[in-house]
Amino acid sequence: MFKPIPRAPLLLGLAGLLPFLWGLATLLIPALGNWALLTLGGRFTAPFVQLSYGTVILSFMAGVLWGFATRDEGWSGYAFSVIPALWAFFMVGGGPTSAAMNLTIGFLGLLLLDLHFWQRGATPGWWMSLRLLLTAVVVASLLPLAFS
Description:
Blueprint: H1 7-15, H2 18-28, H3 30-39, H4 48-69, H5 74-91, H6 96-119, H7 127-146
Helix pairs in contact: 2-3, 2-4, 2-7, 4-5, 4-6, 5-6, 6-7
């Protein structure tokens, strides 16, 4: 399962973690959060940066899965591929704690969908190596917000 990840997807995937990690830092380091609020605005501090970016990424990943579904998946693959975007639309809201928990659940569910498409040969061989790494960091960055 663990195959080497090509450089471009690895570096771009890691760069995509920066908003999650920045949000976590502004949550855990109050002085940084205050500085960011005054300097960058509330949109770039926890919980807003993590929740808005997480919603965008969960929806983006639905599009990625749609692309995998085109590889001879039939109806089920297409149906599975829209779940992350629908989950983000219906479940992310109601306050930062519940939104962060629902995003966490969404990203864990996405990992199961990644596994489904990977097992069917619709993804590159290295896909699960990348997705496990990225999902672990995303979930670790959202859980403190979900339990704050």
